[in-house]
Amino acid sequence: MSKIGKSNETMKNVAKWLVLFCLLVFLPLSMSAQVIDDDDDEPDEEDEITVLDQSGNEEVIEFPEAMTYDLDSLLNVYMAKTYLDEPQDCNMKDVNPEYSKEEFIDRLYRMPCVMEMAYNDVVQKFIDRYSGRLRRSISYMLGASNFYMPIFEEALEMYQLPLELKYLPIIESALNPKAVSRVGAAGLWQFMPATGKQYGLKLNSLVDERRDPVLSSQAAARYLRDLYKIFGDWNLVIAAYNCGPENINKAIRRANNVTSLKGADGEPLPVIKDYWHIYPYLPRETRGYVPAFIAANYIMTYYSLHNICPMTTRLPAKSDTIMVSRNVHLEQVAEVVGINIDLLRSLNPMYRRDVVPGATEPSPLRLPMTEVGRFLDLEDSVYNYKASELLSRRSEVEVRDDVPTYYHKSKRYTRGKKTRASRKARAIRGRSKATRTRAKATRKASTSKRKTTRKRRR
User: How far apart are the first and last CA of the chain?
Assistant: First the structure.
């Protein structure tokens, strides 16, 4: 009886655990909002998503690289550490309300933009990613946008481009000016070295203007303008920015070769230049690039509807630019003028090794506006401070001719002479050995011949 009692008690405990498990699993599914768990890290969803195509087959789409950045790396940027703070009065910041498909379609349609912001399942996946797992990164980018969006808008306005393109750096670099991709693209706009040089951005051992927000934004605006002249469709422009115009042209040719038909009059139908038409022929990452761009525009516009609160921003002091005509190290400026070295690096991100190469050509140095006058007053002191340590490149060196070099020369000469002599000796020894071998063979043959002659005589 005791065994039966223990068995019944065990069954009751199992039943309790099953009920608790069901409550934990199925209760959240019945809620009308998604609760975000910041500790939920699923490696299989880090870099790609899976959607179903029209035939019901699974299709894997890669996330743009910036959507996989660690938030801690973004928060370590000087501007973020110094001028951004976590929102303190944000209610329900971990609750993401759920909306119907029709609501998403309506919101995208009502956005004040020139570019087409169409809805589909792929776009929905990216919206879910931004409003779910990446919601804290969006909070950071909403705060950082106070620094960078005015620069982007000014460059786009300069070339009369749609202002919604200002959200392109969100999927390119997550608004991280120090971002470097695995293929070598750098800066907020992620320029490759060749493309950057083509649009006037300097790149050498000391200077990388791809990292400069102002110069790279102007170069990006010119590049986007040129791509639009080629394709005439902004979605294709965005795709070409990601994978290059050559790949887009290939996809256009393949899509139209497969689907090209002749009209009723026997004439070929016009070539279709539409992103969603050539979508199956694009690289995997590019297939997710335009949907990510649409989702970025959506989430930066409707973030409040998803309970995402921007980080509070304290705008930095205004800066001004002066031109220097001598090499100067940022540490020289920081120590003499009394400016934080990280602030200087943040204002001058294009200088890769903290050296402003003014001796090569007059180069810009950005300083807080309040410190420009102090720099000009102390300019000579700045250039002289630890110049031999911080600027170690010598312009002239002397050859030491006070120490005789005859020994080294004779040693090399003797070594060479010995080498030639040894070669000659080896050659002589080789010839002598060959001569001795032939003589030995001759003697042996003569001896054998004499022995044969003796036998015959007998």
Answer: 124
